[in-house]
Amino acid sequence: MPRRERPEPQTDTRLDPYRRAAARVLDGDEVVGVLVIRVTTWWWQAGPFWRRRWVDARELPEWALMSVGPTEAVPDFDDGIIPAEALDQELRDWSVGVFELRGRYFKLDWLDEAEADALHGKHGWTDL
């Protein structure tokens, strides 16, 4: 039986500024962490186990947060995927420089492309 190909997602242009982004995370005026974001494609499997198929291809942002120095404001490391139902609000927050983590809001200072690439490499996200 031939292997079923995964469908290609529609490109979500709202995600373009965050496809390979990074920011300093601030608690007030103190830098407490760095945030790296990339956009990845997610699929879901549907159908009975003997006839699985890939469906609902969708681009979603994946993020990782690493603390900078000793701080209790953020964990040493945390990561996640923004679900489709929360994407609109998250994009609004990011566009005004805000990141919400566990009910707490932090300011974001977006980094330029070279700094973002360096942080992605440090985190191990070297895909372009």
Task: Please describe what this structure looks like.
This protein has a six-stranded antiparallel sheet with strand order 4-3-2-1-6-5. The model has no long low-confidence stretch (mean pLDDT 90). It has helices at residues 87-95, 113-123, and strands at residues 20-27, 30-46, 53-67, 77-81, 98-101, 104-110. The protein has 128 residues and is of the alpha+beta class. The protein has two helices and six strands. Strand 5 and strand 6 (104-110) form a beta hairpin. The longest helix has 11 residues, at 113-123. 16% of the residues lie in helices and 44% in strands. The protein has one domain. The protein is elongated.
Topology (SSEs and partners):
Layout: E1 20-27, E2 30-46, E3 53-67, E4 77-81, H1 87-95, E5 98-101, E6 104-110, H2 113-123
Antiparallel strand pairs: 1-2, 1-6, 2-3, 3-4, 5-6
The ordered string of helix (H) and strand (E) elements is EEEEHEEH
Which term fits the overall shape? elongated
- Number of separate helices: 2
Strand content: 35-45%
Overall helicity: 10-25%
Provide the domain count. 1
pLDDT < 50 runs, ≥5 residues: none
Count of individual beta strands: 6
